[in-house]
Amino acid sequence: MNLPARHRSGGMWERGFPWSEPIAAEFGDLFDRMNRFLETAAFPASLCEAAAWAPPADLHETDEAYRVECELPGIGREDIDVEVGEHEVSISGELRECEGQGVLRRRGRPTGKFEYRALLPVEVRSEEVTASLTDGVLTVTIPKARAAKPRHIEIQG
To answer: Among 120, 126, 12, which Cα is nearest to 66's?
Structure first.
């Protein structure tokens, strides 16, 4: 004989979490502090310093070139290095920590070394690459190498 199943209504998932907003924020701070602790405890300082963050970027392709738009707010031209090889573009540098007053309670912006890399499927003309930094967005234009355009060949009979 089967017994009817009991369903509880108004469980935690249906009612939402019973925590108020300040307690939820404290949990977020606690998780951030635990992550920082675990990162420093698990890895030597030399390895942590070598780790780099990747800035948000878009890679566009046209018939003539590739264009990388990379968000780097607050970083000066002198702190950015752009390198282009036959099939790769690399944007790297360092965002230094701002000197602020008071005690930093929560960090929401990355600091330290950054690096963005992208593979390019065709050869490019690295000597014709241009880069500009406007309103915190770095735009790198990478012209493609001139490839032979396909053409129709008439077969002789």
So the answer is: 120
pLDDT in tens, 81-98: 999 987 899 999 988 877
Cα separation of 39 and 37, whole Å? 5
The count of other CB atoms within 10 Å of the CB of residue 65 is: 17
Which CATH architecture does the domain made up of 52-97+111-143 adopt? Answer: Sandwich (2.60)
Question: Within 13 Å, how many C-alpha atoms sit on residue 75's CB side?
Answer: 25
Residue 93: closest CA among 109, 116, 60: 116
For the chain, the average pLDDT equals 78
Sign of CA dihedral 77, 81, 83, 89: negative
Q: How many Å apart are CA 10 and CA 145, to the nearest integer?
A: 64
First to last CA, the chain: 87
- Is the Cα torsion angle 136, 63, 82, 119 positive or negative in sign? positive
